[in-house]
Write a structure and sequence with these properties.
about 400 residues; mainly alpha; two-stranded antiparallel sheet; 17 helices; 4 strands; globular; binds protoporphyrin IX containing FE
């Protein structure tokens, strides 16, 4: 920036007098202090922001040739974009792989927050805005899945919108109101197209700004759960006593670490885009939507499987109640965890066990959710995993109340 100031002294002064750009730059970048003791997992937020950027850019290219018409959408995607438009396949692969990988990173980012207790007192709004982002990304992914108008688009759209009839209450009017018809059709595709390309991306952008805003005052947490005096440490850094300071400025020091992690991430990301994109594309969705032919096994994309498996093993109404529970319970985490200790899970007992059981349980639910429900052994494993998930959340307030903190820095 110093070079920029020298080269364009007038521009900088002019902008600063009108927009306070220098203050803004300090608050958001050069004097935005980040703890030294954080690991690569703290780069996941930036990885998410960058992946969202890629999704927006690739989506804009796809939008140039996509046609939201039930008679034309399938060919627009699978024929025009994939084989007639120069590099259309590349934008589609980036978009498909990005949509899948973004959820993997979101889950890593969430579980990092849970492991280090980054949702606790003072940081509740970071967590809540993050959860709103999770819900919005889910709606964005679901609405995007409808657009190729393949067999899975159609039937997953049918199954998920059916949930809004609320089981035995049979509120079919709501389902028809959402679809704009008795079954998914042109009105349905038009609505989900609008949601996917306009409303949800706008909402996500607003929520990302909110999420960043909620981070500014409480500052990011660190891997030891240490309570840092940011003012004192920042003063030490500014006085040149950098070794004694416990913080570094976001720009340029922390950002250079973020950029390094981003570089590695993009190598892996583009490896998937060029060589293994098929993992992000369901083969069943390469058949055009056919309202007269129900696929033998309807399942959502991998990132929704854990909550789908909580819906499936129970009777209709009970399953729906627990499915609703699974959708909202993560939001309540800052209020269900009754322990004031901000520390990594490894030092919090018995929370440590709770964390690892939850992680393994959600992976088990994901695997079981993909298998057809016909095998009784797998159905039983799925049911046990679903019950475990519910029990884990119900006992959380009690086990955090009797928590013991062991070892570590604090
Ligand atoms: C596109 C979505 C998201 C973006 C772009 C994003 C971005 C970020 C960034 C840049 C940070 C600071 C650095 C870091 O800790 O990684 C952060 C922190 C955080 N995010 Fe997100 N985030 C997103 C979604 C989520 C979700 C779904 C959650 C889960 C509820 C979440 C919860 C948190 C928490 C708790 C922190 C604080 C970490 C700490 O203090 O150590 N975020 N996020």
């Amino acid at each position: 920036m110093a070079h920029f100031d020298k080269a364009f002294p007038f521009t900088n002064k002019w902008m600063d007098q009108r927009l306070g750009v220098n203050t803004l730059q300090k608050v958001l970048s050069t004097e935005y202090w980040i703890p030294k003791n954080i690991n690569f997992l703290w780069a996941m937020g930036m990885v998410l922001a960058a992946t969202f950027g890629l999704l927006v850019v690739s989506g804009i290219f796809l939008l140039m040739y996509y046609i939201p018409d039930t008679g034309k959408a399938f060919d627009a995607v699978n024929y025009t974009i994939m084989s007639q438009v120069g590099y259309g396949w590349l934008w589609r692969h980036i978009h498909g792989v990005g949509a899948s990988v973004v959820f993997l990173i979101i889950y890593i980012h969430m579980f990092t927050g849970i492991y280090y207790g980054s949702y606790k007192k003072g940081r509740e709004l970071i967590w809540l805005s993050g959860m709103l982002l999770f819900v919005s990304f889910s709606a964005e992914a679901f609405s995007g899945y409808m657009l190729p108008w393949g067999q899975m688009s159609y039937w997953a759209g049918m199954v998920i919108t059916n949930l809004f009839s609320l089981g035995s209450l049979e509120l079919n009017g709501i389902v028809e109101w959402i679809r704009g018809d008795y079954v998914p059709g042109q009105a349905f595709l038009g609505r989900f197209f609008m949601l996917h390309v306009l409303l949800m991306p706008l909402l996500i952008m607003a929520l990302i700004v909110l999420h960043f805003g909620t981070l500014r005052l409480p500052h990011v947490n660190n891997q030891d759960g240490e309570e840092i005096d940011f003012e004192e440490s920042a003063a030490l850094w500014k006085a040149g006593r950098k070794k004694e300071s416990k913080v570094i400025p976001f720009n340029p020091v922390f950002m250079s670490k973020d950029v390094f992690v981003l570089g590695i991430y993009f190598i892996l990301f583009f490896y998937l885009v060029f060589y293994h994109f098929e993992f992000a594309m369901d083969p069943v969705n390469f058949d055009p939507a056919d309202p007269l032919k129900t696929p033998a096994h309807i399942y959502p994309e991998w990132y929704f499987l854990w909550s789908y498996e909580i819906l499936r093993p129970f009777s209709k109404d009970v399953g729906l109640i627990w499915f609703g529970f699974a959708q909202v319970i993560f939001m309540a985490l800052p209020f269900l965890d009754r322990s004031p200790n901000v520390a990594p899970a490894s030092r919090r007992r018995p929370f440590r066990c709770w964390f690892w059981i939850l992680l393994v349980d959600m992976i088990t639910l994901t695997i079981m959710g993909k298998l057809p429900p016909t095998d009784p052994t797998f159905a039983m494993i799925g049911k046990i995993a679903a019950i475990t998930f519910i029990v884990l959340w119900l006992i959380l307030p009690f086990i955090t109340k009797i928590e013991k903190l062991v070892g570590g820095k604090k």
